[in-house]
Specification:
This protein is an alpha/beta fold and about 190 residues long. It is about 45% helix and about 20% strand. It is built from six helices and seven strands.
């Protein structure tokens, strides 16, 4: 059974660096990069992450249909790092044909959340059924100002519920604060 570790925290709290350090001695490692280079700023962020990544790690650039994409690889991995769930959620929302940024539609958010959670459940099932050490990185949202737009508030709420689900299903959970990891859930391996 694969072990699942969730890393959460604010922006630039050191989440990715800590997540990568958990897999330093694990081989081979698959890095699932969820970002899409939609503008110059995102391209710079992606390059920054790529430079810091272990060059021996394999990269899968994907955010949708992860269980299928992983199964297609038909390869053993000692570690799998998914960075990051927040970007994955954003991308899954923006590829939906029923997304309307101009108004809040409760039915859209309920349906989207149900489908996203089902997809994440399948991904976690894949991780559990592997022998890999799996690390997921996510952002802890909602600890600051209430977002100005209905879309941003709905996204914050969705991210919070997704994080709660992932934390329940994970073996270990770490909160990163100013580069310092705080273990907030640890499953006894014995």
């Amino acid at each position: 059974m694969g072990k699942i570790t969730l890393i959460t925290g604010g922006a630039r709290s050191g989440k990715s660096t800590f997540a990568e350090s958990l897999l330093d001695k694990t081989h081979p490692v698959l890095y699932i990069a969820t970002a899409v280079p939609v503008d110059e700023e995102m391209k710079v962020r992606i390059r920054h992450h790529q430079k810091g990544r272990n060059p021996s790690w394999e990269t899968l650039e994907a955010f949708a249909s992860l269980p299928q994409r992983l199964a297609e690889r038909e390869r053993y991995y000692g570690g799998i790092l998914l960075d990051c769930v927040t970007v994955l959620l954003t991308n899954l929302l923006f590829i939906r044909s029923d997304l309307n940024l101009d108004c809040y539609e409760e039915e859209f958010w309920v349906k989207a959340e149900m489908e996203i959670l089902e997809d994440l459940k399948k991904t976690l099932d894949f991780f559990r059924n592997s022998s890999a050490e799996c690390v997921l990185v996510t952002n802890e949202l909602g600890q600051g100002l209430v977002p100005e737009t209905a879309f941003a508030r709905a996204f914050r709420d969705l991210q919070g519920r997704v994080n709660q689900y992932l934390a329940r299903e994970s073996d270990d959970v770490y909160l990163l604060v100013s580069g310092i990891p705080l273990c907030i859930k640890e499953t006894d391996d014995e």
